[in-house]
Write a structure and sequence with these properties.
Layout (H helix, E strand, L loop, with lengths): L1 E4 L8 E4 L10 E10 L1 H8 L1 E3 L5 E3 L13 E9 L11 E4 L9 H4 L23 E4 L5 E2 L8 H17 L10 E4 L3 H13 L4 E5 L2 H9 L4 E4 L5 H9 L2 E6 L4 H10 E9 L13 H5 L2 E4 L5 H12 L8 E5 L3 H9 L6 E5 L1
Parallel strand pairs: 10-11, 10-13, 11-12, 13-14, 14-15, 16-17
Antiparallel strand pairs: 1-2, 3-6, 3-8, 3-17, 4-5, 6-7, 7-9
The structure holds zinc ion (ZN) (2 copies).
One zinc ion binds next to helix 2.
Amino acid sequence: MKSEKMIAYGEALQTVEEENPVPQGTEVLVRISHCGVCHSDVHVHEGYFALAGDQKLDVTGNRELPFTMGHEIQGEVAALGPDATGITVGEKCLIFPWIGCGKCGACERGYENHCEDTRNIGLNIAGGFSDYVIVPHARYLLDPAGIPDGLAATYMCSGLTAYSAVKNVGKTGKGDPVLILGLGGVGLIGLQVAKALLDGPVYAVDLDNRKLAAATEMGADGVFNSGDGDVHKAIFKATGGIYSVVDFVGSEAMAKLALRVIRRGGKYVLVGLFGGGFSMPTAMFPLRAISVIGSLTGTLEEAKEVLELARGGKIAPIPIEERPMDQASQSLQDLRDGAIVGRVVLTP
Ligand SMILES: [Zn+2]
Ligand SMILES: [Zn+2]
């Protein structure tokens, strides 16, 4: 197998050739056809996430170098371990990468994405910047039928993240307005998921009028430019207050806006990783009965649900740019520089 590996944090990936791994036990060997390049790959490559101020969260733990990143993987089954069942060699598949220990409470509840001892593919165990990858169990292989190749791979991270964030809003009534903050790739998917799943009107905020126009085209019931000084007043006037804000930015300014417009009993779902902080008097949480919910990727069940939604034509495809696998390093750099529209998907 031939992989693009991280040898040292922050340095260019290197091509490494080695023997194909042989699947053991329930493991499945997948021949990779596509692997998306995600913003979190950039953070993993740098070795940290920016937090508030100049604080950084170290993300170099639970991973050995050299390491193969890549967690938006599509391919076909190449070989089965002796105990692998439920799938046959040659079947096309997507790989659910958010794998837990399988033993803790979170895993037991089906929230492997909340496990404290993750075996995430492409983050803790070898991932998709390669032509082959080992998957621990066939239950993590999902059916990509009905979705264009390459695009389907991106639903394992960006699509799933958007879907799960909106699921965290829970049940809504017709009079429960929901506000999407930030209309990058993930936010635009979130908007469409909200329109598909929720009963109340869906509003959107961004700094870029072109993105706001795109949101209107995708069915937003109203849009607001966050550059307008009194945007919270405009939101209040149009909506009477928001039941749930889903924040795909996660900046200080967006948090401030969210906590200003949320109604009593409302929810603030935080999914964006821009970085920053907020403070609120503790008594305001009970007095306004506000919940703040952090949303991290999604569950295996939600991954199946978002694929179903995409198959049903409820999510407009994001632009995909295919590049050869040996451009993995360059693609990380381009993503860091903001030089990519849509998603780069690498092909071995
Ligand atoms: Zn990702
Ligand atoms: Zn676990």
